[in-house]
Amino acid sequence: MADEALFLLLHSEMVAGLYRAAEQGEGENGRCTTKLESMGFRVGQGLIERFTKDTARFKDELDIMKFICKDFWTTVFKKQIDNLRTNHQGIYVLQDNKFRLLTQMSAGKQYLEHAPKYLAFTCGLIRGGLSNLGIKSIVTAEVSSMPACKFQVMIQKI
Amino acid sequence: MAVCIAVIAKENYPLYIRSVPTENELKFHYTVHTSLDVVDEKISAMGKALVDQRELYLGLLYPTEDYKVYGYVTNSKVKFVMVVDSSNTALRDNEIRSMFRKLHNSYTDIMCNPFYNPGDRIHSRAFDTMVNSMMMQVC
């Protein structure tokens, strides 16, 4: 349906627009990724509030991560996370073999160096969602071969 | 019809407190503050099965001689506390639940407002209107 394409196109335009503005201005390129991530953070906070409105209380951290992998990912990207790994000590790796924001770009190694820009927003999304549920974390992403990508979540114990 | 409604952030500071007979406001603030302890107790009662662990609605927190206090915790650890007049016995559990549902829906709408920073006090007029509709009419 057209509504899937809407978010993909808006997101690509967001990334392109931010980098265009950075080129014209004086700012360094590193700030664009931070801006994208903080945008994703705020969106993630609001989204999580809406999605967890009707779900039951979460038992523990693993429960929350499973919710993110299944319900949250399905609602935003229309599919689930393909693989969740953890070392049970606060590190989770979410693997998506066909990340929707990257499928339109390439199916191998082409454009690999541009991929991180398109993952920043989603990293922020995960971090914002977790923070609203009471978990402080650091989320990073890596791509070895499009369109598969891995999100690594490191829980910060205060 | 509630007498006082409070929204408390996960760090336990108030985001929104409104009470109807405005001269005794401090007493209601104190009541809400002490009810936070009871809320924490109920949430952390793991394995005791006193409260259904999967539900967001906590039920009656504690009754005083004039008032009854009800609680509700969202998944993002934001607490809603409602103080109801004891003399108003017509209020059933279902009505209280539906009032908390409305509160939760309005709070979700506020979160999605781009002009609202999570953690700030709530100044939304739509939220005020909704809370007014739930408070007792004092003439």
Offer a few descriptive terms:
heterodimer, A: about 160 residues, alpha+beta, four-stranded antiparallel sheet, 4 strands, about 15% strand, B: about 140 residues, Beta-Lactamase, five-stranded antiparallel sheet, 3 helices, about 35% helix, TRAPPC2L (chain B), ER-Golgi transport (chain B), cytoplasm (chain B), Longin-like_dom_sf (chain B)
Write a compact overview of the structure shown.
By secondary structure, chain A is of the alpha+beta class.
Question: Could you walk me through the main structural features you see in this protein, from its secondary elements to its overall organization?
Answer:
The complex is a heterodimer of chains A (158) and B (139). Chain A has 5 helices and 4 strands, in the order H-H-H-E-E-H-H-E-E. The relative contact order of chain A is 0.18. Chain A is of the alpha+beta class and 158 residues long. Chain A has a 4-stranded antiparallel β-sheet, with helices on one face. Chain A starts with a helix and ends with a strand. The mean pLDDT of chain A is 84. With 139 residues, chain B is an alpha+beta fold. A 5-stranded antiparallel β-sheet of chain B has the order 2-1-5-4-3, sandwiched between helices. In chain B, helix 2 runs antiparallel to helix 3. Chain B contains 3 helices and 5 strands. Chain B has one domain (1-132): Beta-Lactamase, CATH 3.30.450. The longest helix of chain B is centred in the N-terminal third of the chain and has 19 residues, at 25-43. Chain B has helices at 25-43, 93-111, 125-134; strands at residues 2-8, 14-19, 57-63, 67-73, 79-85. Chain A binds chain B through residues 42, 45-46, 48-50, 52-53, 55-59, 132-134, and chain B through 10, 53-56, 73-77, 104-105, 107-108, 111-112, 114, 118.
